[in-house]
Every structure is written in structure tokens, then in C-alpha cells.
Design a protein that fits this description.
The complex is a heterotrimer of chains A (119), B (98) and C (123). With 98 residues, chain B is an alpha/beta fold. Chain B contains four helices and five strands; from the N terminus they run E-H-E-H-E-H-E-H-E. Chain B has a single domain, classed as 3-Layer(aba) Sandwich (Hypothetical Protein Ychn, Chain: A), CATH 3.40.1260.10. Helices cover 28% and strands 20% of the residues of chain C. In chain C, helix 3 links the parallel strand 3 and strand 4. Chain C starts with 7 loop residues before the first strand and ends with a strand. The chains are: A alpha/beta (119), B alpha/beta (98), C alpha/beta (123).
Chain lengths: 119, 98, 123
């Protein structure tokens, strides 16, 4: 199965990004493909490489980067939402790319399932 | 259809709206929605009534994180994240009631 | 822009406008989805019905009034707008209070419609 995932909330404030990550990991562990994760609304804040959580906390941004590197997951950040919140190419974490809302629609058309995680 | 709920029914109406409108199917309670499946919570009656139409699941990790132990309402099943993935596959479509 | 089969996309709007950004962002996705030649339905239920309330004046909150966009949807061939009856009634509203023509559905009809979809996005 080919999965698309939508993350609507930023890291550390809501559980959404954690839930989405754990879902993606479980899907991959079962041999499925996570084709794309689309970060929308405050979810674009998951892509900031300036993120620096305390040492005893999980690093949500790095976790996504690692998932992208190891499993070829396409991490797409909504351009309009990103611009509004100061997420730019220069502070974008590895593995993420900035693109338009069409990428979300494309995930809906091309994936067998699209799962949204938000507030 | 798989309906995914992530809010406590005691502070938000997502689960209530889902139960009011949705056609029979599967419901997965995640994050703060797992409180809906605890014995003695004020929403218990409504959830039990809906269990004739819906198969109700809780996400085990969210349940455990909140210290809910053996308080699960009879007839509600627990699934791990792999089970969550399976539910999205056994249903043709899923809807997150945000 | 279209490729492959057309899917049925449903956008479920359950949040009031202005208090959060979701209503505005939902409209953005709806317009893009229509541009991809997909089958688009919009549902307004719970506080989402307030998105369609006539007479929105946003000058005082210094925010863009995006409610006229709902009337423009027809121009993009987006014509399936559904409102849940009980949500409307629970807010003391009737179809006359809405700024665009909609189809009012009972809860069972709404549930059945949701089950026909390929992709459901909730805002």
C-alpha cells in the first residue's frame, strides 16, 4: 500500500507530529510505502533546522529527516504556510522540500490512503 | 470508513459529531480520545450505545501513556500502531475528525 | 493538470472562521483540488456552518474577509456544498442565513455521502 500523510500542527505543541511519525514508522515496518508527508498550517514548523529541544527530549525534526533518508519519504512543506511562518530554504532541515498545495492534492490522488494528523 | 478521533469527548464534540453523523463503521480513539473508552467517564453511556453500530478501538500506546491500565470498557479493542495501519487498509477510506 | 482516475474528495469543515486559520486554508485546498479536475464536495457541519453566515465584516479584526470566495466557487465548477441540518438548527440558523446556495442533508444522508468518498480531508 502507498500512504500519504498530512501533518497539520507544529512539533512539541500538539501530539499530531508524534502520532504521524509513529504511524509512518509502523506502516514502513509492515512493508508499506510512505510516499509523501505533507506539512500544512503550523505543521510547517516541523521542518525548521533551528529546532533545538532539551537533550532528554526527542528530536522531532531529526526524526523526520532520518525517516526521509532511510526510506525515501518525500517530506513536503506547504509554501504559503511556510512563508507566513518564516520557514525558508535557508532554515529548512535536511530531507524537507518546500512546494505548493498541489502536492497535497497529488498525494490524495496517487496514494491508496491519505491519513491526516492534526488538532 | 475508519473514523479517527483524537479529542477527549469531555472537552470537545468531535466524537459526539462522529457518532451523530457517521454511517456504521470502525472508530479508532487516539491521543486524548482514549479517555472516551474508560469505565465511569461521563461519555461512557453514549459510547456503549454507539458500539452496536461501530467497532471501537483504542491506540494502546496512547492508552498506556495516560495511565489508564485496566479501565477499558468491555468490547473496546486495543491496537498498536501496526494495528492502526491495518485499520486504515481494511477500510476503504479514513476520516480524521479534527 | 489531471492525470489518471478522478477521485472523490470531500472537505469536511467543522470549525468556525477567523478564530483559527483552518476555514481559510480549507478553501485554498478546495480550489487546488478542483484545478486537478477531481470530484469535489464541501461539507459544513458543527461550527463549520458559521463559515457560510451572511454579513461577515472583518475590518475591525484587521483580517481578510474570505466569505465572498464561497460564492465564487461555482465559477470553478465547485457546486456540491452540503450543510448538515442539525448543525444548522443547533445554531439557530436557517438556509436564509447562508450566503450561498447549499444542499441541506439530514445526518443519515450525510453519513451515507461520507461513505462514498475516496479521500476525506477534515478542517
Amino acid at each position: 500500500m502507498k500512504f500519504g500523510i498530512v501533518v497539520n500542527e507544529g512539533p512539541y505543541q500538539h501530539q499530531a507530529s508524534d502520532s504521524a511519525y509513529l504511524f509512518a514508522k509502523a506502516a514502513i515496518a509492515k512493508g508499506h510505502e510512505v510516499w509523501r508527508v505533507f506539512f500544512y498550517h503550523d505543521g510547517v514548523n516541523n521542518a525548521s533546522k533551528l529546532t533545538e529541544p532539551p537533550q532528554d527530549d526527542r528530536n522531532i525534526v531529526n526524526r523526520w529527516t532520518k525517516l526521509a533518508e532511510e526510506h525515501k519519504v518525500d517530506l513536503v512543506v506547504c509554501v504559503a504556510a511556510a512563508m507566513r511562518r518564516g520557514i525558508r530554504e535557508e532554515n529548512l532541515a535536511a530531507g524537507f522540500r518546500i512546494s505548493g498545495l498541489g502536492q497535497l492534492v497529488e498525494a490524495g490522488t496517487k496514494c491508496d490512503r491519505l491519513i491526516t494528523f492534526g488538532d | 470508513m475508519l473514523h479517527i478521533i483524537n479529542k477527549s469527548p469531555l472537552s470537545n464534540d468531535s466524537l459526539g459529531s462522529c457518532l451523530r453523523v457517521a454511517a456504521p463503521g470502525d472508530i479508532l480513539l487516539t491521543e486524548d480520545a482514549v479517555y472516551a473508552a474508560t469505565v465511569g467517564n461521563a461519555f461512557e453511556g453514549k459510547l456503549r450505545e454507539a458500539m452496536g453500530r461501530f467497532k471501537v478501538y483504542v491506540l494502546q500506546a496512547d492508552w498506556d501513556a495516560r495511565g489508564l491500565g485496566d479501565r477499558r470498557i468491555e468490547g473496546v479493542s486495543a491496537v498498536d500502531h501496526g494495528g492502526f495501519v491495518d485499520l486504515t487498509i481494511s477500510n476503504n477510506c479514513c476520516q480524521s475528525w479534527l | 493538470m489531471s492525470e489518471g482516475a478522478v477521485k472523490k474528495f470531500m472537505f469536511v469543515n467543522r470549525k468556525a472562521p477567523y478564530g483559527t486559520i483552518y476555514a481559510l486554508e480549507s478553501l485554498e485546498v478546495v480550489l487546488i483540488t478542483a484545478a486537478f479536475d477531481q470530484d469535489v464536495s464541501l461539507v459544513f457541519m458543527d461550527d463549520g456552518v458559521y463559515q457560510l453566515k451572511k454579513g461577515q465584516q472583518t475590518k475591525g479584526i484587521e483580517t481578510k474577509n474570505f466569505s465572498p470566495t464561497y460564492r465564487a466557487l461555482e465559477g470553478y465548477d465547485i457546486e456540491k456544498l452540503y450543510v448538515e441540518k442539525e448543525s444548522l438548527e443547533a445554531r439557530g440558523l436557517s438556509e436564509d442565513d447562508l450566503l450561498v446556495d447549499v444542499t441541506v442533508l439530514g445526518r443519515a444522508e450525510m453519513g451515507a455521502l461520507m461513505n462514498e468518498q475516496d479521500v476525506v480531508l477534515s478542517f
